[in-house]
Amino acid sequence: MKHEQGKNISAISREMNVSRNTVYKYLKIKEPPSHRRPSRFDAFRPLVSDLLKSNKGANEIERICRHEGYTGSRSTLNKMVAQEIRNAPAPTKSVRRSKILTRLWKAADPNESDVSLEESWTEKQPVLMELQLLALSFRRIFKEKKNPCLTNG
Questions:
Q1: What is the pLDDT of residues 97-121, one digit of tens each?
Q2: What number of H helices and E strands is found in the chain?
Q3: What pTM was computed for the model?
Q4: Which of 29, 21, 33, 27 is nearest to 3 (CA)?
Q5: Is the C-alpha dihedral spanning 50, 54, 55, 61 positive or negative?
Q6: Dihedral of CA 99/101/102/108: which sign?
Q7: Closest of 82, 81, 138 to residue 108, by C-alpha
Q8: Count of alpha carbons within 13 Å of 141, Cβ hemisphere only?
């Protein structure tokens, strides 16, 4: 950084109290060194990640990893699982089924014109549009039967 600002190698070495060769060495490095030692169990990280994505529990992960040749301790495996969980992308926000059903029912009500399904819901689950039509059909049937307990009034 100081070299990029125009300082020469000798000035940098005097300021940092290191030899010029050390300054040259660090100028050649493109990215900072990683002080993390590689683990002989790093080969199991993709397997652990896939097992977590398929919602496997810790005991099941351990059993499968051991079957694949993992010989480390359970605590090492637990640390690996914890790291993979932290590195995993955040889950998408889910919507409770009861909220969807309530919204479907209200959206099919002709008296509630301002209620509709959220666009993000229908993008992820196109079947919701079909369910909305089904709810509308039920509403029509209930209205024809004129049963007050089925039509909310």
A1: 777 777 777 776 656 655 566 666 6
A2: 9, 0
A3: 0.43
A4: 27
A5: negative
A6: positive
A7: 138
A8: 6
